[in-house]
């Protein structure tokens, strides 16, 4: 159908193969695109493939020029699309429910934590307001929200949001933090304050994980994602740039999950 970009797990009869179809780059139509839900479910499934409960195949589709067989099978549906034993699951909430209830090991990723759930719920909408309004009031609201996440991580002293192992909330939060970091800096010179040490330490740990680095889109694709939303065009030199991935940490971080 299109470009297969990742495969993880053993392709044998012992474990089921799950295919995840994700949006391709809006720049080259082949590499990973900057769809938040695509990356979130990619991370969920990658973690399960690392645990050998599934074999994972990830396929990109260029939605600007979708191949005929994709249009035939899925009509106007946009990725992410999960395919499990011939069954296609098309809507985000249904994909999440399927991973939790039907994919082997998936239930372990979904923990109950109302504090974390409410804390990360509206984070992305604040980024979108910053990019649309481009004023300091919206930037301050985003900064304050990130400060609450930093405070939670500092108070809990854990490596990840709910403990020392990753869960669905981490797969939801980290792609959004990356978009805030890359797009915020590019469009409005927004930066996550270095004083948010617990948050930066959290991001440092996430940057060490294959589940994140294998699923993360290039900086250029994140930027182009928002340029398209604002009806802006990429400059030719930007389209031709070698993909870069911002993963540096602006503070000294020791390999400890506790905050100094």
TrEMBL record:
<dbReference type="GO" id="GO:0016324">
    <property type="term" value="C:apical plasma membrane"/>
</dbReference>
<protein>
    <recommendedName>
        <fullName>CLIC N-terminal domain-containing protein</fullName>
    </recommendedName>
</protein>
<dbReference type="InterPro" id="IPR036249">
    <property type="entry name" value="Thioredoxin-like_sf"/>
</dbReference>
<dbReference type="GO" id="GO:0005737">
    <property type="term" value="C:cytoplasm"/>
</dbReference>
<keyword id="KW-0472">Membrane</keyword>
<comment type="similarity">
    <text>Belongs to the chloride channel CLIC family.</text>
</comment>
<feature type="domain" description="CLIC N-terminal">
    <location>
        <begin position="16"/>
        <end position="99"/>
    </location>
</feature>
<dbReference type="Pfam" id="PF22441">
    <property type="entry name" value="CLIC-like_N"/>
</dbReference>
<dbReference type="InterPro" id="IPR036282">
    <property type="entry name" value="Glutathione-S-Trfase_C_sf"/>
</dbReference>
<keyword id="KW-0812">Transmembrane</keyword>
<dbReference type="GO" id="GO:0005254">
    <property type="term" value="F:chloride channel activity"/>
</dbReference>
<dbReference type="InterPro" id="IPR053823">
    <property type="entry name" value="CLIC_N"/>
</dbReference>
<keyword id="KW-1133">Transmembrane helix</keyword>
């Amino acid at each position: 159908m299109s470009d297969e970009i990742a495969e993880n797990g053993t392709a044998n009869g012992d474990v089921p193969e799950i295919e995840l179809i994700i949006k391709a780059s809006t720049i080259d139509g082949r590499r990973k695109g900057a769809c938040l839900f695509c990356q979130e479910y990619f991370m969920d499934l990658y973690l399960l493939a690392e645990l050998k409960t599934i074999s994972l195949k990830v396929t990109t589709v260029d939605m600007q020029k979708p191949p005929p067989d994709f249009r035939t099978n899925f009509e106007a549906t946009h990725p992410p699309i999960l395919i499990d034993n011939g069954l296609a699951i098309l809507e985000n909430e249904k994909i999440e429910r399927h991973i939790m209830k039907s994919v082997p090991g998936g239930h372990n990723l979904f923990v109950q934590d109302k504090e974390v759930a409410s804390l990360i719920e509206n984070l992305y909408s604040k980024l979108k307001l910053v990019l649309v309004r481009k004023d300091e009031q919206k930037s301050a609201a985003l900064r304050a929200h990130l400060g609450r996440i930093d405070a939670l991580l500092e108070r809990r002293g854990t490596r990840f949001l709910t403990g020392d192992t990753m869960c669905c909330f981490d797969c939801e939060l980290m792609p959004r933090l990356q978009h805030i970091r890359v797009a915020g800096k590019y469009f409005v010179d927004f930066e996550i304050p270095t004083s948010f040490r617990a948050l930066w330490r959290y991001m440092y740990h996430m940057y060490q994980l294959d589940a994140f680095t294998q699923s993360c889109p290039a900086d250029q694709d994140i930027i182009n994602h928002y340029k398209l939303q604002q009806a802006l065009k990429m400059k030719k030199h930007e389209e031709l740039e070698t993909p870069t991935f911002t993963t540096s940490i602006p503070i000294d971080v020791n390999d400890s999950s506790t905050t100094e």
